[in-house]
Design brief:
Blueprint (H helix, E strand, L loop, with lengths): L4 H12 L3 H11 L3 E6 L4 E4 L1 H6 L4 H4 L4 H21 L4 E8 L5 E10 L9 E8 L1 H23 L3 E6 L4 E4 L1 H7 L12 H5 L5 H11 L5 E9 L5 E12 L5 E10 L1 H15 L9 H18 L4 E9 L1 H8 L1 H18 L5 E6 L2 E6 L5 H16 L2 E3 L2 E3 L2 E9 L6 H17 L5 E3 L6
Parallel strand pairs: 16-17
Antiparallel strand pairs: 1-2, 1-5, 3-4, 4-5, 6-7, 6-10, 8-9, 9-10, 11-13, 11-16, 12-13, 14-15
Helix pairs in contact: 12-13, 13-14
Amino acid sequence: MTPDEPERLRRRARHTDWSKEELLELITKSAGATLAAVDRNLQMVYVNEEYARWFGSTPELLVGKTIIDLYGESDAARFMPFVERVLSGERVQYQRLLRTPYGFDEWRTICLTPWPARNGVIDGFITTALDVHELQVTMNALRAANQRLSSHMENSPLAVLEMDQDLRLLHCSQRAVQLMGWLPLAHLEGRSLTQLLGHTADEGLHEALQRLQEGQEAQNRAETSFTRQDGAEVHCEWFNSALTDAEGRVTSIMALVQDVSAKIQIARQQQYLANHDSLTGLYNRAAFHSRLDQALARVRHNAAGSVALLFIDLDGFQRVNDTEGHRAGDEVLRIVARRLAATVRGEDTMARLGGDEFLVMLDREVTRDVTDGIGQRIINALHEPMWVDGRALHIGASIGVAMHPPLEGETDALMNRADQAMYAAKRAGKGRLHYAQPALQ
């Protein structure tokens, strides 16, 4: 026998000496909870000291009193539905805000347990109350915080998407549903974001989300463009972030998605206006100059191919402007642009330099026969009557052509040679095509 063994045996003996009544008294006094037994007539059969303390009394004075005596009719009426349920045999638990003996309110969990039935009748019930005030206050604060966060998510102009680590949707705002053109919310939770996006999930977004999943980044951004089922073109900017646990594992991913379609459209419009003539929609001088630079550089680099530049000046346009007015003149210029587009090939480049001067660049499959054919079709098309406000207006066109090779392959020089050739066509009688010739050596 070890030195400690006698003491353990003595403690064990003392424990086995407790009677059931003594153990019950010890438990009810030391439990730290209010405890009472109530019969079917709602009379107190037993109360512990903690219960009595709430009423500023002793157990002996409370036994025999009814619930109505202790709580009053008004207060008792609020919890009588729970009492009726426990007397029907159901174990009931609920939370209630109670005024403590110290004069302040605390949340308590009330547990009502039916007595074992005799002859099928519940004799009464046991009621206990545990202090859950701190827990309830924390839960209320958490619930309020969640409600505020949910409200912010729903009212945000950004679409909000919350996903688990496998990109299954946990929550999305109504704005997200509208932006993506998805089905109602009830059908979305638990579905894969990749499946929901379908063909709209471009590689950039996929890679950005994958880097978050693998823990390579804590946040990133991506851009997507897609066409919704209603036909609307949508451009989105995604701001993504990952939430990790204490071990660094990704537990969820949140995406804030901004609709930047309007900004993209404005940028496109600005780009278009910067490169196109506002009246006819053809390229302007600067844009045409840039494309001609590229075509000539390509020919020089490949040491193959040709570029033909057709400089077009309208014959008789000034007369239309003077006699019919500028509005009619503007409409004639728009008709000229449409006829040019219908005459040249799809890969050819057209521009309006200003006034009644137009340019056409041929840089694919350029031969003298091709240039002759297109030039003559332009002259014929622009010679046809142009109907403006019910009146047939007549103009014509003189065209100067400069080709590289054989002419020099510098942009300004080639345009000057085409311009000079156009004036030569006018001097020769208008309505015709004239080629710039290489300078004599």
